[in-house]
Design goal:
The protein is of the alpha+beta class and 480 residues long. Keywords: DNA-binding, Metal-binding, Nucleus, Repeat, Transcription, Transcription regulation, Zinc, Zinc-finger.
């Protein structure tokens, strides 16, 4: 015998956000079975539990629908994977229509939720609630292991993966693992080369909408975070926080192998690959591998030939903004990095750091081939070591396209190419003698000025070249 239980739906007041997820519309009401059949042999108490699980509360003879965001139909779609609502612009699918409406704001740029303290706007109400806690400083959830506090409990769960080392999401293409599913989805786009979002100003393309949003701040100047010390501006506050460490000198991230410390975590991760020789980023054009993604991005510009940064003084173009900034110092004469020992100034910090090794005597790169026989021959720059190793292997990767002659290092090839053209762009202002290389001109100038000559302390003989000077010193040593 089957009894028919008449269902009366009453919706008194439901807290609704602008997305309409918590609002019950007519379609949702009709989707509820108005004639629920209750079998005589079924446990009424068990049936009540099922009703609660579906979002109902049994109050006497009537059933009231909770103000929850997911109906029974939505739960069913979660299991089947069906997404009936799709975006007309990017074809992304959604289970709920409110999720689609929320997604459309990424295309329209609509931000209906505004912070009453700083007037910052957001596309989602949840983002506003999270932002408000940044003003109040409220962080009610903390890690049981290290005590770090978070605004949301979900952030604690993600943080715990750092302690456990768990990375449950793996790429089926390359096998790389991730702690977050969204990180995996973002990584998968590297293999598909899918870039749906492009900048209307400069045409640069991105795989994710939020990356494009951050990029647009460069053009609009909106919501930039400025450093109070040097005035430099950043599109992301986290990047500003990392930048502040350069002023404070704090280096909280250290290498577990050699103990070297870094101000930023990704620098420590990249440095660790120098010990492991891991190069996870490879060029699809020439298969050359790199330790960091930024190095790969720089390399790709060699293939594309893109040099968007133009010098307004001489017209020379560069692939990076930092390269242009360094180049402009040649015109302005600015040398912001000065040696405290000898007072010599430098355009780039990297060059300054290399110069400091001439005072400290540090030579961190050792040749394992001849170092055992020739008193540990070492080098101040890693590139010099790489070039030196080629003298042992006789590798000559740089070839002249005119005569086919090969060289160990690229500068030697560049110098050789000028021999075919008879080009001598460097001229002495005193005697008008011309040279193919600037270094040759510098050596020649010592004849006129006498500056930079190498003098023997034993016999007072002077030399233009250090190599000749060192050879002469060994002659005295052998005689002694």
């Amino acid at each position: 015998i089957t009894a028919v239980l008449s269902v009366s739906i009453t919706i008194e007041s439901i807290l609704s956000d602008s997305d309409g997820c918590a609002t019950v519309n007519q379609d949702q009401v009709q989707s509820i079975d108005e004639d629920t059949e209750l079998s005589s042999d079924e446990d009424p108490q068990q049936n009540q539990k099922c009703q609660k699980a579906r979002g109902y509360v049994n109050n006497s003879d009537s059933l009231k629908l909770k103000g929850q965001k997911e109906t029974r139909k939505d739960k069913h779609l979660t299991h089947t994977g069906e997404r009936p609502y799709s975006c007309e612009l990017c074809n992304k699918g959604f289970i709920q229509i409110c999720s689609l409406k929320e997604h459309m704001r990424t295309h329209t740029g609509e931000k209906p939720f505004s912070c009453m303290i700083c007037e910052k706007k957001f596309s989602r109400q949840g983002q506003l609630k999270y932002h408000i806690k940044l003003h109040t400083g409220e962080k009610p959830y903390s890690c049981d292991i290290c005590g770090k506090a978070f605004v949301e409990q979900s952030k604690v769960k993600l943080h715990m993966l750092n302690h456990t080392g768990e990375k449950p999401f793996s790429c089926v293409t390359c096998g790389k693992s991730f702690t977050l599913e969204r990180a995996l989805k973002s990584h998968m786009k590297i293999h598909t080369a899918e870039k749906l979002y492009s900048c209307p100003t400069c045409g640069k393309e991105y795989r994710r909408q939020n990356r494009l949003t951050l990029h647009m701040r460069i053009h609009t100047g909106e919501n930039l975070f400025a450093c109070m010390t040097c005035g430099k501006k950043f599109t992301i506050k986290r990047v500003l926080d990392n930048h502040m460490l350069t002023h404070t000198g704090e280096r909280p991230f250290s290498c577990k192998i050699c103990g070297k410390c870094f101000s930023q975590k990704h620098h420590a991760v990249t440095h660790l690959r120098t010990h492991t020789s891991e190069k996870p980023f490879s060029c699809q054009n020439c298969k050359k591998a790199f330790k960091s993604k930024s190095s790969l991005n720089l390399h790709m510009k060699i293939h594309t030939g893109v040099k968007p940064f133009l010098c307004t003084t001489c017209g020379k173009s560069f692939s990076q903004k930092s390269y242009l900034a360094n180049h402009n110092r040649i015109h302005t004469g600015e040398r912001p990095f000065s040696c405290k020992t000898c007072g010599r100034g430098f355009i780039q910090r990297h060059t300054y750091m290399l110069h400091m090794r001439t005072h400290t005597g540090e030579k961190p790169y050792l040749c394992k081939t001849c170092g055992k026989r020739y008193n540990q021959k070492s080098f101040t720059i890693k590139l010099l070591l790489i070039n030196h190793i080629r003298t042992h292997t006789d590798e000559r990767p740089f070839s002249c396209i005119t005569c086919g002659k090969s060289f160990h290092v690229k500068p030697h090839l560049i110098s050789h190419m000028k021999a075919h053209t008879d080009e001598k762009p460097y001229q002495c202002k005193m005697c008008k003698k011309a040279f193919r290389l600037k270094s040759s001109l510098n050596f020649h100038m010592r004849l006129h000025t006498g500056v930079g000559l190498f003098s023997c302390k034993t016999c007072k003989k002077t030399f233009h070249f250090k190599s000749n000077y060192m050879r002469h010193i060994k002659m005295h040593d052998s005689q002694a």
